[in-house]
Specification:
The complex is a heterodimer of chains A (528) and B (255).
Chain A: H1 2-19, H2 21-46, H3 54-76, H4 95-107, H5 110-119, H6 122-125, H7 129-163, H8 165-172, H9 175-194, H10 207-210, H11 214-226, H12 230-260, H13 282-297, H14 299-316, H15 325-343, H16 347-351, H17 355-361, H18 364-398, H19 404-428, E1 433-434, E2 443-444, H20 449-476, H21 482-514, H22 516-525
Antiparallel strand pairs in A: 1-2
Chain B: E1 4-15, E2 18-29, E3 33-37, H1 44-51, E4 59-64, E5 67-68, H2 73-78, E6 80-83, H3 95-105, H4 110-123, H5 139-151, E7 157-161, H6 169-184, E8 188-193, H7 196-202, E9 205-210, E10 213-219, H8 220-224, H9 229-237
Parallel strand pairs in B: 3-8, 3-9, 6-7, 7-8
Antiparallel strand pairs in B: 1-2, 1-4, 4-5, 9-10
Helix pairs in contact in B: 3-4, 3-5, 5-6
Classes of the chains: A mainly alpha (528), B alpha/beta (255).
Chain lengths: 528, 255
């Protein structure tokens, strides 16, 4: 059974590679990263040799790896057909051999191997003597086994949930904290480290509780063995093995349940209200109502709005508390607009086959103009308060809350530019979108990466260029009295943004009228 | 009934080297319930997409109620209702919101769209689920919701692509009765299917399409010529299955 499932996994992998170039590229990229992680981890762990806090830091690295294994299946569920027990439910398989087979299949691949190789860095960094080296190898193998068992347990326990629509919706929101954490690590941590606010001492004490977690047990077993305490080392390893055994037992039980039970935790419920908002205000209001409902009910939309806010905050973080905070405020306002444009530059492709309903009802230039105006209205209803609030927060954080007024002018111009450009790109560079299972944000279908790049980058840079006159006006008038300057800037920028959005909708409508059937064909090929 | 509700002339479409529709001609009288049957991949969906203005043909003409679908799309779209094959709808709207949206997009006043969608949901047996998201609907419910969207503006001509594919008998019966009632009032229906019994039961006109060409068209009696429609279809299109001589082990008597 184990051999068969390993073969099945390898066959699925090679078939996927043969089927599309995108899969080939992502496989090569993933393998490349796995090699990098293996080498990087090995070097980092090996470099701990002779350091006083070596065991603390090894325990931290082991824990980070376990955490990675814990969340990875939540994000990539469905990429590996061998991992979903439901696909095997029809075959006459006993749970135990199935469990061993699934475990073997999960251990097959570049990432588990990269984990083993990378973590073996402890043989240089932490282990001393024959006993130490022996325990180190055992501890690394047990640690990787623990990670795999943990990931399997979580996946199987959540398999029913992740197959249901609501479960996938919930999983989509995990992206927000992960993205925010990533931004924090890549922007905030290096800065704080450079300022001396984060040092090696910050981690002191963390080991007091990490040592009792399974990854900590593995790290400390190596330390004990190297110090000659063979009994303590073996005791720790035995404890770790017991944890793995308990986890495995729980997993086998969950597997038995998952094969025969339907998930009932996500049964659908009715929506409130049930009437279309703004339906009384013509096609524009109707379309705006539909777009607004989608911004609220589709997790992907909420994720994108949150990402806009996170990017705005992250872009300004390095200079917001310095005398050049203006640059941070301008940058975050323009980037907010740019992201808004990029996320909505393929509205029709992202609507999917349902666009057929709209395409067969929209007749003539007037209704198409109303369609794009409605779309812009719905996006503006969310974008204006969101960008204004984030800018207000940043201005306050910078210690110059009064500067918020001129930032709002840039926000408004940026939003207008984003709506205009994304309307035009939606029609001019439409492409089918595809949602991979487990990923909340759709990407371009195979072969349309170029279009996605053009409309995405085009929106970001386009917003920068089109917003430039307002930025120049803000900079040139900085010495003018605020009572005159602010009202003129805000009203002028709002008018400029409105005019841009209006023109964008008109241009898009005119182009869409000529190629409505082609736009529908792109939308119909989307897999959402 | 001499007036033609649908007239198709020399309709052609190729995808690369493959000719999906190879110049079809078709005339459907007003008030008719017509079936377009053919094996998988025969060109049914491609033909219907071109007739409804959703796929640009390489050449040919489509007239619906005398209006040229490709010369004057706005005018033609106003008299057409469409139910696409995989009723892919706005998943995040409730059934009620979806029907109302379809009506409002057609320029209907809000109150009218609301009252019509409530009546359609009632006839389609969807009232109890009107406030649930379409994403949580079953296949039958989705087909019924799509039919409601196509009917809300009361089009004189309705196109349906595989309307009963994957639909349970109860929902199928609801759809069938609604279509018969719709045609009884003088409207026209053209639907594609590969379920011969269904076409034989409900249609008065049938066209058989194979490899992108119409190989037979006329009333049900004309096309089947004394046989069952199923037999006439297999005779025209040709049985493609081998007799399976290699499967000597198959079946409980051989073990």
């Amino acid at each position: 059974m184990a051999r068969l499932l390993v073969q099945l996994k390898l066959r699925l992998l090679t078939n996927a590679l043969r089927a599309s170039r995108g899969a080939k590229i992502s496989f090569i990229a993933s393998t490349f990263f796995a090699v990098l992680v293996a080498i990087g981890t090995f070097v980092v762990l090996a470099a701990l040799r002779g350091q006083s806090a070596a065991v603390d830091q090894t325990a931290a690295v082991f824990t980070v790896f376990a955490f990675g294994w814990l969340i990875a299946p939540l994000l990539s569920f469905g990429l590996d057909g061998t991992l979903d027990p439901a696909t095997l439910a029809l075959y006459p398989l006993r749970t135990r051999p199935l469990a061993v087979g699934l475990l073997a299949a999960s251990a097959t691949g570049a990432w588990p191997l990269a984990n083993v190789i990378g973590l073996l860095g402890v043989t240089i960094g932490l282990a001393h003597g024959f006993l130490g080296e022996l325990v180190a190898v055992l501890a690394v193998l047990l640690q990787v086994l623990f990670c795999i068992a943990l990931a399997r347990f979580v996946t199987t326990g959540m398999a029913g949930l992740l197959r249901s629509r609501r479960g996938k919706d919930l999983a989509a929101f995990l992206v927000i904290p992960i993205f925010a954490l990533y931004e924090a690590f890549s922007q905030v941590v290096p800065r704080m480290a450079a300022e001396g606010k984060i040092t090696a001492e910050t981690f002191a004490g963390i080991d007091r509780w990490l040592r009792w977690l399974p990854p900590g047990l593995a790290a400390h077993a190596i330390q004990d063995a190297s110090a000659g305490h063979a009994g303590a080392a073996l005791l720790r390893l035995a404890l770790l093995a017991a944890v793995i055994a308990v986890l495995g037992g729980l997993w086998i039980r969950a597997l038995g349940h998952a094969l025969v039970r339907v998930d009932t935790s996500t049964q659908s419920s009715a929506v409130r209200g049930g009437l279309l908002p703004f339906a009384r205000s013509g096609i524009r209001g109707t379309v705006a109502g539909r777009y607004l409902i989608y911004q609220r009910r589709e997790p992907g939309s909420i994720v994108r709005w949150c990402i806009i806010a996170v990017v705005m905050a992250a872009a300004s973080v390095s200079t917001i508390r310095t005398p050049t905070y203006h640059v941070a405020l301008i940058l975050s306002a323009v980037l907010g607009g740019g992201m808004l444009g990029a996320f909505n530059a393929n509205s029709i492709g992202l609507t999917g086959a349902a666009f057929g309903l709209e395409a067969s009802a929209l007749t003539g230039p007037r209704s198409l103009r109303a369609y794009f105006a409605g779309r812009n209205l719905a996006l503006a209803v969310i974008a204006v308060p969101l960008l204004a609030v984030v800018s207000a927060g940043l201005a306050a954080f910078a210690g110059h809350p009064a500067d918020w007024f001129w930032v709002v002018a840039i926000d408004l111009a940026g939003i207008g530019a984003a709506l205009a450009l994304s309307s035009v790109f939606t029609v001019a560079v439409a492409y089918p979108a595809e949602k991979r299972v487990g990923s909340p944000t759709p990407r371009s279908a195979d072969g349309y990466g170029g279009q996605a790049l053009v409309s995405g980058l085009g929106s970001v840079f386009g917003v920068v260029i089109v917003t430039a006159p307002v930025i120049v006006a803000v900079v040139l008038t900085h010495s003018a009295p605020a009572a005159v300057r602010i009202p003129v800037l805000v009203v002028g920028a709002a008018g400029y943004g409105l005019a841009l959005a209006w023109a964008g909708a008109r241009i898009a409508a005119r182009a869409a009228e000529r190629r409505l059937p082609e736009l529908y064909q792109f939308a119909a090929r989307s897999k959402l | 009934m001499a007036e033609q509700a649908i007239a198709v002339r020399g309709l052609r479409k190729s995808f690369g080297a493959k000719e999906a529709v190879a110049g079809i001609n078709l005339e459907i009288a007003a008030g008719s319930l017509a079936g377009l049957v053919g094996p998988n991949g025969a060109g049914k969906t491609t033909s219907l997409s071109m007739m409804t203005g959703l796929l640009r043909p390489d050449s040919g003409q489509v007239l619906v109620q005398g209006l040229d679908v490709w010369a004057d799309p706005p005018a033609a779209k106003a008299v057409i209702g469409v139910v696409p094959a995989e009723a892919r709808l706005f998943e995040r709207l409730s059934g009620q919101e979806l029907l109302e949206y379809a009506g409002r997009l057609r320029g209907m006043p809000a109150s009218e769209a609301r009252s019509r969608s409530a009546q359609l949901l009632d006839v389609l047996d969807l009232t109890a689920d009107a406030k649930r998201l379409v994403a949580d609907y079953s296949t039958g419910m989705r087909k019924k919701a799509a039919l409601g969207c196509a009917l809300i503006h009361n089009p004189p001509v309705l196109f349906l692509d595989e309307p009963l594919e994957g639909v349970d008998p109860v929902s199928g019966d609801v759809i069938r009765r609604l279509l018969t009632r719709f045609v009884g009032s003088g409207s026209t229906v053209l639907f594609s299917s590969h379920v011969m019994e269904l076409v034989e039961q409900v249609c008065d006109h049938v066209s058989i399409i194979d490899k992108g060409q119409i190989v037979a068209t006329g009333t049900i009696d004309e096309v089947r010529g004394g046989k069952t429609l199923q037999q006439a279809f297999i005779d025209l299109v040709g049985s493609r299955a081998s007799e399976g001589e290699g499967l000597t082990w198959l079946g409980s008597s051989s073990s």
